[in-house]
Design goal:
Radius of gyration: 14 Å
Strand content: 5-15%
Shape: globular
Largest sheet: 3 strands, parallel
Oligomer: single chain
Order of helices and strands: EHHEHEH
Number of helices: 4
Length: about 110
Amino acid sequence: MGVVGDSLNGLTDSIRRQGKIEWVHVRHEEVAAFAAGGEAHVTGELAVCGREFADPGNLHLINGLFDCQRSRLPVLAIAAQVPSAELGAGYFQGKPIPRTCSRSAVTTVS
């Protein structure tokens, strides 16, 4: 589940061509995280939510991911950030994802 955009176009196109994974487009990142949590709760399996390049959308994932973490639901969030070298250079809500998501995630990778 997620909101597509330039940075995820390659991923979503690959998913579409393989036909093995269903991509569910939603209109807001928070909805994607809560929907993934709902799917994980119902199925007991890993659910995935994603978001196209950079902020502020990544910040919108946090409420849903925090709910998943508190409910111990297996959810993987795929998110991007502005290039690390450009953090603090004035991007609107440009936040380092590992630090921003540290309270709602078990593991973050940069």
